[in-house]
Design goal:
By secondary structure, the protein is an alpha/beta fold. The chain contains 10 helices and 7 strands.
């Protein structure tokens, strides 16, 4: 409770400082009555903003410390996300005590509308090797295949492990392990590139996106919703310079069509200093059974309840 009160105070003060800093008269000028030059006023304002931003970063870091101790998080990065944004997410997880147990990148073919038929072909090829997908649409089959390729041994609740591997590689020896086969097909198809594959349990997923194609938010939310069947918390993090990026608004709208237990949270990351607590607190809230959409867009809470 104390940490929540402290963080609430931090947000109120941060917003207040953000309005006042840069508009107020420099203290020396106010005391002496001397008119500062425009250049000096600009330098003073920039110095105050830099001091405020440094303070925000320090408070944000302190607010997330230890919140995810001992948890393993999968980080999937969609096409278009900058390396700097990925580094910021990974750093936030580390500051919260989590480890990145899975890290992979999804190509533009994963969500671009013009590749829908191609994705369907890959899903049809993999279906016999994916557990728990009987009767599902090809889009969902593909998302389950990605999970099971990255987390060996993972199956959705109530599913039996898939039987014989149903994929042939005429010119190559095929590994007996089903997850190896899934990963091989997905990487050869250039849908997925794997940086870190799970060696143990995975507790949560962060699906990190930028401003993607039309319909990309629905694809992202569906993918996270599939992961929700395997892990306790899933969050879609959308990096954008605008307050209501289409990927985020589409993901939020699609989330309302999912059962609460399969509904990811959505974070709109428009302010660097506030991204770590938004990401970490959204994961904490998800793990406790909650869900929500957070950011500076209209009618959204700024941040999840810690």
């Amino acid at each position: 409770m104390r940490s929540r009160a402290v963080f609430a105070a931090f947000l109120v003060l941060a917003l207040a400082v953000g309005v006042v800093v840069g508009m107020s008269t420099p203290r020396d000028a106010a005391v002496t009555g001397a008119a500062a030059s425009p250049g000096q006023e600009a330098q003073d304002a920039l110095a105050q903003v830099a001091q405020r931003d440094a303070w925000l970063r320090d408070v944000a870091t302190a607010s997330v410390a230890g919140r995810l101790d001992g948890r393993s998080v999968a980080v999937l990065v969609a096409a278009g996300v900058s390396a700097e944004d990925v580094d910021q997410v990974v750093a936030a997880l580390g500051e919260a005590g989590a480890t990145v147990g899975v890290e992979a990148a999804l190509s533009a073919q994963w969500w671009a509308p013009e590749f829908a038929a191609y994705r369907s072909e890959i899903a049809d090829q993999l279906e016999g090797s994916v557990a728990g997908v009987d009767g599902l649409a090809s889009t969902e089959v593909l998302q389950h295949a990605i999970v099971q390729a990255l987390v060996p041994g993972a199956v959705p609740p109530g599913a039996d492990t898939a039987g014989d591997v149903g994929v042939d590689f005429p010119s190559d020896a095929v590994a007996a392990d089903r997850a190896d086969v899934l990963r091989e097909v997905l990487t050869r198809s250039e849908l997925l590139s794997v940086h870190t594959r799970a060696t143990g349990r995975v507790d949560a997923l962060l699906l990190v996106t930028a401003d993607g194609p039309e319909g990309g938010g629905t694809v992202a939310d569906l993918a996270a919703g599939v992961w929700e069947q395997y892990v306790s918390a899933t969050v879609v993090v959308v990096f954008s310079e605008i307050e209501s990026p289409p990927v985020a608004t589409e993901a939020i709208a699609h989330g309302t069509t999912l059962a609460i237990k399969n509904r990811p949270s959505v974070v709109i990351a428009t302010h660097a200093a506030l991204t770590p607590p938004q990401v970490v607190f959204a994961l904490v809230e998800q793990a406790a059974g909650g869900t929500g959409s957070y950011g500076t867009a209209e009618n959204l809470p700024l941040i999840a309840s810690p």
